[in-house]
Design brief:
The protein is α/β, with parallel strands linked by helices and 336 residues long. It contains 10 helices and 13 strands.
């Protein structure tokens, strides 16, 4: 297969590209290399990919309508994996326009490309769409009508936009609700990166909601495995879908939604203890209140994913954190 990965210099995008190339796929990555976090990390990810056969890279912005039209007109893809997005819940309170540009306008450009030029679509959604829902674990059949951040609202918009294109134009589309992805080569704005950096520097680390947070931390290799299996099993209409009793995660159109999470509730303090253990140092905690846009707890029900593609994430958080710390120490020691 020839696969387009948008956001290909990002954490998940680059990890997915490595996996696809290793099994013989041809991969075209698109990324705008913006400065939301240090572009040097993105370029380091790309440098590793550039050495692999079958890889090509285009610096471009999916929000650039003409640029995306040109890309799809001259290239042919069997599958498009849309991972490009403006990430970060808290940053959406500061720069909302960036989220609409990348996550709504950009996604529309991707949908149009697939509509006119073929291939099937796999796209990143987020556990954030569950918003004000507090019933755990989160299931794809739950209502997702109460987002608590603009970031979450844009991701829910992606799911609805993809459904309309599946219904109107037969675009085969699978949305994946990622749950707190972590691991080597991760984003510097995420907790694991910030905690490790702060602990090593002997600085206080901010711990929100006084530490009473629960997350379904999902290791990067598990995320990639789930995405690959979905790539190999494109969406199809659900023959059991009943318009008189419509299920929220499937359709009479070739569209569906899956959670990808570790199906584990991990308290934030356990996560911090795992980092301390891997680093061999204690953290100085700066306990802070709940932040706007955050939710207190997440956990994924992954039964639908397992039934569809025969896989569920299973990496223990202590093992995943240790692998991240090994990478972090090696990468930043080598960068000095």
């Amino acid at each position: 297969m020839r696969i387009l990965v948008t956001g290909g210099a990002g954490f998940i995008g680059a990890s997915l590209a490595h996996r696809l190339l290793s099994r013989g796929n041809e991969v075209v990555c698109v990324d705008n290399l913006n400065a939301y976090y240090d572009p040097r990390l993105k370029k380091a990810r790309l440098a590793l990919l550039a050495a692999k056969r079958g890889f090509s890279f285009l610096q471009a912005d999916i929000a650039d309508r003409a640029g995306m039209q040109s890309l799809f007109a001259r290239e042919t893809f069997d599958c498009v994996v849309n991972l490009a997005a403006q990430a970060g819940v808290r940053h959406s309170l500061v720069d909302p326009h960036a989220y609409v540009d990348a996550n709504v306008t950009g996604f529309l450009n991707v949908l149009e490309g697939v509509r006119h030029h073929g291939g099937h679509l796999v796209f990143a959604s987020s556990s954030s769409v569950y918003g004000g829902n507090t019933r755990l674990p989160f299931r794809e059949t739950d209502a997702v009508d109460h987002p608590v951040s603009l970031y979450a609202a844009t991701k829910r918009a992606n799911e609805l936009m993809a459904h309309s294109y599946a219904h109107l134009f037969g675009v085969r589309a699978t949305g994946l609700r990622f749950f707190t992805v972590y691991g080597p080569w991760g984003r510097p704005d995420m907790a694991l990166f910030l905690f490790a950096k702060g602990i090593l520097a002997g600085e206080p680390i901010p711990v929100f909601n006084q530490g009473h947070m629960v997350r379904d931390f999902t290791y990067i290799d598990d995320i990639v495995e789930g995405v690959v299996r979905v790539i190999d099993n494109p969406a199809a209409p659900d023959p059991a879908w009943d318009p008189a009793d419509p299920l929220p995660a499937s359709s009479s159109a070739p569209w569906r939604i899956f959670n990808i999470g570790n199906h584990q509730r991990v308290e934030l303090m356990r996560y911090i203890r795992a980092i301390e253990s891997a680093l061999g140092r204690k953290a100085i905690l700066d306990l802070q209140p709940m932040q706007p846009g955050d939710v207190e707890a997440t956990e994924a029900d992954t039964a639908r994913l397992e039934a569809a593609v025969g896989f569920r994430p299973n990496t223990p958080v202590e093992e995943g954190v240790r692998r991240f710390v090994d990478w972090y120490l090696d990468y930043y020691e080598a960068s000095r």
